Amino acid sequence: MSASNPTPVFRRVVLKISGDGFCRPGEGGISIEEVIKVATQAKRAAEQGVQLAIVIGGGNILRGAQFSAGSDAIKEPTAHYMGMLATVINGLALQDALESLGCATRLQTAIRMEGVAEPYIRRRCVRHLEKGRIVILAAGTGSPFVTTDSAAALRSLEIEADVLLKATRVDGIYSEDPERNPHAVRYSELTYQEVLRQNLQVMDMSAIGLCMEHAIPILVFNFKKEGNIERAVAGEKIGTLVSSTKPSPD
Q1: Residue 2: what pLDDT?
Q2: Half-sphere exposure of 86 (CA within 13 A, CB side)
Q3: pLDDT digits over 13-61, tens only?
Q4: What 3-state class would DSSP assign to 220?
Q5: Which of 86, 191, 240, 242 has CB atoms 3.0–4.6 Å from 218's, for a disulfide?
Q6: Are 26 and 175 in contact (CB under 8 A)?
Q7: pTM beyond cutoff 0.85
């Protein structure tokens, strides 16, 4: 990154970070160092003037799907609610990390728990963003059988975000898993239809479909590379952009 902050091209963004972003590779739980790294990048992105809402996952603590097969002791809806509560734990960690850096924040949850967070209310969320606060959105949609990817797409639509930033550990969308096939091809741009047709596993299909229906662009990028969240907010050509049409070559 240059010494001066780039000018953001987006007014309002939703940043989706999976639970894996809160722990070291191959580990689970919460790594304070990794949380601080996320918070530091988010702070710098917000300092560019963009309104930032962050939807977080909880897979580093618990994935609802891990209880959905092999036993009836825990019902699948219960397992999904457990996963939603895990996202709130991550949200609390990220909120304190951001505030330790001097950021004004609000944590909102789709499941009411006023003792630790505000309930998600669209108008209140938008008002916080307009006041320059970073809003952390936890507990998915509050309903089982809905992924946090779909929650991120839904919140993007609700708060009229200009783009959905999908933060991952890889630098975009590939034709195959690049960790398994070193010859996999990375795409710089794709249409929604291409993602669906090729069944590219970047987000669940319902999230892609919702973004396609309402023309919300999705930028998939590697947030583990220092400065990439700021670059994404500034509209730099990183990762893979998924939209209605691919731009014509210069």
Answers
A1: 43
A2: 22
A3: 999 999 999 998 888 899 999 999 999 999 999 999 999 999 999 999 9
A4: strand
A5: 242
A6: no
A7: yes
The domains found in the chain, sorted by start residue, are: 12-243 (3.40.1160.10)
For 97, how many CA atoms within 13 A lie in the half-sphere containing its CB?
22
Local structure of residue 55 (DSSP, 8 states) = E
Alpha helices per DSSP H over the chain: 32-47, 76-100, 122-130, 148-158, 192-198, 205-213, 228-233
Distance of CA 206 to the CA centre of its chain: 15
CA trace torsion 236, 48, 16, 36 (10° rounding): 110
* Largest interatomic CA distance in the chain: 58
Q: 183 burial class (0-12, 13-18, 19+ CB within 10 angstroms)?
A: exposed
Token digits of residue 91: 């949200």
